[in-house]
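Lecture notes, unit on protein representations.

Consider one protein chain, 174 amino acids long.
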Amino acid sequence: MSQISRRLFFLLLGALIPSVINDKTDAATTKKSTPTPTPTPKKKKKKPTPTPTGKKPSASPEAKPTQSGVIEGVFIAKSAELKLRQPKVFYLKDSFGISTGYSLTRTSKGVVAFSTRCTHAGAPTNVSGSQLLCPAHGSIFNPESGEVIRGPALDPLKSYRIIEINEEVRIVIS
């Protein structure tokens, strides 16, 4: 008899719990209606029209000081440290003290920078000759374009904007 009463108890409990939960959620979601404020119309600002300067953009644009006199980007290397078509890895620490690697290569068009994290498994790549090699699974990347030369990685390395000014190479991380 005790077996039947236990079954009956759980059956009734299973039937009552969903209705109790629904009642509580209905009470929690029911709000008193309050009038919603109407937004005030804003005046549209005219965007300035860019004027052509006739100059062609380069791979390493010159950094211009902002109105406060601060130069854009973070110093990562001296210009003299980068030789033509020879990738070199530099490390920066973030505000948490975590070191992140960046591959810098001087090309005929200027300096280019890429993340050293493999896009396949996230392992850091190493310079191997004139290429970036992922030791985890053997992916190979072109240090001048970030493109995959050999997989298993499918996506190119993340690129960063570089500014070269006053014999300094600065990286813009955003």
